[in-house]
Amino acid sequence: MTHEPDPRRWKALAVSLTAGFMGLLDVSIVNVALPSMQAGLHASSGGIRWVVSGYALAFGLVLVTGGRLGDAFGRRNMFLGALAAFVITSALAGAAPNETTLVIARLAQGVAAGMLTPQNTGLIQDLFRGAERGRAFGMFGAVVGISTAVGPILGGAIIAVFGAQDGWRWVFYVNVPIGVLAFALALRMLPRSEKKQLRISSEIDFVGIALLAVAVLGVLLPVIDSDSGGFKQLWWLFLVAAVFGFAFVRWERSVVRRGRSPLLDTRLFTETPGYAAGAAVGALYFCGFAGIWLVFAIYFQQGLGYSPLQSGLSVTPFALGSAVSAAVAGRLVPRFGRRLTVTGLAMVAVGLLAVALLAEVVPPSASGWAFAVPLVFAGVGGGMVISPNTTLTLECVPVRMAGVAGGALQTGQRIGTAIGTAVLASVFGLVLGRGYPLALTVALGCAALLTCGALTLAIAELRARRRRASEDEREARRAETSAADVHRS
Fold this sequence. Notes:
Blueprint: H1 9-25, H2 34-41, H3 45-73, H4 75-94, H5 99-127, H6 130-162, H7 167-173, H8 175-189, H9 200-203, H10 206-224, H11 230-234, H12 236-257, H13 267-270, H14 275-289, H15 292-303, H16 308-314, H17 316-336, H18 338-361, H19 367-370, H20 372-394, H21 402-431, H22 436-488
Helix pairs in contact: 1-5, 1-6, 1-8, 3-4, 3-5, 3-10, 3-21, 4-5, 4-7, 4-8, 5-6, 5-21, 6-7, 6-16, 6-17, 6-20, 10-12, 10-21, 14-20, 14-21, 14-22, 15-16, 15-21, 15-22, 17-20, 18-20, 18-22, 21-22
């Protein structure tokens, strides 16, 4: 049976990626607005920290669940519901009269974004085949990378336009008109979901949801609260996470054996070629990649006295390089495969090390310009990592599991983001007593080391792919020889 492509698939992709961009952008855009929020609401530093941490926590907790719900009940239905919830919660966050209301709104906004994001990968799996799927994942990878990089730039620009007192509200309000437009377009462009009878008891793995939620919470909570002693006070949650993670895997295997629908089919990691390695590469890369933006913000704003907008513009070269290369790399995946991510990771590591060296030898007043070229180089490499890795990781995933596979991939990236941000910020703070340049050098050196770890995994996956290709080629030759022998006899 041949696959008939949907004629509106590219328009549908544009709509879904626009909505996905908003959700991912809100992970980083609020960082530069935190002083404005604290001044406008007379909020405590702990409460304001949870404006960022609460969103990241809720986002990471529901990603796999959101993917599973999309697989079970239809990507279009989940997309529209999650997008509507994201718009409403954005408006509530912008209108929050006090700190408590803002934190609650951000938690709800994080849940909505976590439900929305895995529908993007699921829709790509549904709508595209072959080389087109690589191009679509290239666009998705660009959205993931750019949304993280441009968050500080957009946040700084919004604060500059609307003022320090209430400018933070517009960081949330800007989602409302964009979200409403995306919702109206999605109603027209997204393919209608297949009608299904909602069998809640058999379709939704509530025990799996609870076990995974506790496991993810146990990892993320100490990490996102690390700057206030989270590691010392909450270290025992890592043990809880390990126990519940083990219980989750055992439970999911038993669900599959009983012929029911698991939340996360563990066969994705054991029987789907390249999925486990690709997910590990993505998680470790985000450990090194996502944390550098907070370090740069501290260096430029506190160390050099830059405004939030100037600080954001100083890291624009990375975002520009990533945007261009991600779109191009998506088209090159069928030709070069895992070699793209290996090359990209090497470029990111070299670029970060170059910035780390320049921070020590270039006068601080000239660092913004001096960092531009290595940041472009690293950005080009970064664009060659995220979109090809997403394509290669998900290429063998069955369509029926596309949403949950994408959600699991994103969960690893969110956990990597939280851990990397905490580690790099802690390293920066420990060295800060010896000066901002040295602190930046050491932090970026750690980021490059984490990137090299991802590079090692990618090289191992490249070799594994070559072995599988050689075995397939030998099997094909044996089959041809056998067929020829039968024909001659």
